[in-house]
Amino acid sequence: MKFKRHTIIFKKRHFLFSKGNVFFIHGFDSNWTVHKNLLMDLYHEGYNIYTVDLPNHGLNIDFDRQFLFLDYIRFCKGYVNLKNKKKVILIGHSMGGGIVSAISHQIKNLKAVVLLDPLQKGAKAHKAKRLLASIFNKELHEKVKNWLAPKAANKNFDGKKLLSDLTSEASDKIINYGLSRIDVPLLVVFGENDYIIPPEPSVEHIKENAKKSPLIKVVLIKKAEHSPGVENEKETLKEITSFLLNI
């Protein structure tokens, strides 16, 4: 796997002065820079930050094949464990949240998990509502269209194929199994107006599956949709830092 060339590691502190090592996994058809401000803020709060553009995303497009959910799971598990840090905190957004859910129980020295609007079974709820929203909301319609459109510079990214795999029953089972094995504190953050992965019933689904976690905190971020860490960065940062300081 190719890690080094496309890995971003914010300047590391001595372990005695670091609050923890955050590994951030971005979402579908995205890249780590979308959440750059949030990650920089977490760095300034005292956390080391590790992140990477997933294969066939961002600048990491030097691959000769399509990646599907299991491929991303293997890639991210290898990436996090390769660094072999103490006090590991996994943060995943959307598809990245699904990946984090799936790999958490296989990560060494895990301290906490933070899921931002994570992919899971609840993502398929409220289809009619989201369909109507995409029809009558031009901005949302354009977002979806751009997600699924072929990428001229990246012929190995097939949005429709990847999205179909992400929402398959097989992927659901992998994510649910991962959620059921999380045994560290878990923070679940949703934008209250998320039409892509609706908070309800997603939150209940996650809580029902993540019963081994000693602490599950759920937060709905106001004035935010599918990317609360971008759309309401201040409140999202506040919730994440407060959660991490109290575990």
Give short descriptive properties of this protein:
247 residues, 7 strands, seven-stranded mixed beta sheet, alpha/beta, globular, 16% strand
Category from helices, strands and their pairing: alpha/beta
Overall mean pLDDT stands at 88
Largest sheet: 7 strands, mixed
Helix tally? 10
Helicity level, as a percent range? 40-55%
**Cα end-to-end separation:** 33 Å
Strand/helix succession: EEHEHEHEHHHHEHEHH
How would you describe what is shown here?
- With 247 residues, the protein is an alpha/beta fold.
- The protein is 42% helix and 16% strand.
- The chain contains 10 helices and 7 strands.
- The protein has helices spanning 36-44, 69-83, 95-103, 127-136, 138-148, 159-166, 169-181, 199-209, 228-231, 233-245, and strands at 7-9, 20-25, 47-52, 88-93, 110-116, 186-191, 216-221.
- A 7-stranded mixed β-sheet has the order 1-3-2-4-5-6-7, with helices on both faces.
- Helix 1 (36-44) runs parallel beside helix 10 (233-245), helix 3 (95-103) crosses helix 7 and helix 4 (127-136) crosses helix 5 (138-148).
- The two termini are 33 Å apart.
Short description:
The chain is of the alpha/beta class and 247 residues long. The protein contains ten helices and seven strands. The chain starts with 6 loop residues before the first strand and ends with a helix.
Q: Would you spell out the secondary-structure blueprint of this structure?
A:
Layout: E1 7-9, E2 20-25, H1 36-44, E3 47-52, H2 69-83, E4 88-93, H3 95-103, E5 110-116, H4 127-136, H5 138-148, H6 159-166, H7 169-181, E6 186-191, H8 199-209, E7 216-221, H9 228-231, H10 233-245
Parallel strand pairs: 2-3, 2-4, 4-5, 5-6, 6-7
Antiparallel strand pairs: 1-3
Helix pairs in contact: 1-10, 2-3, 3-7, 4-5
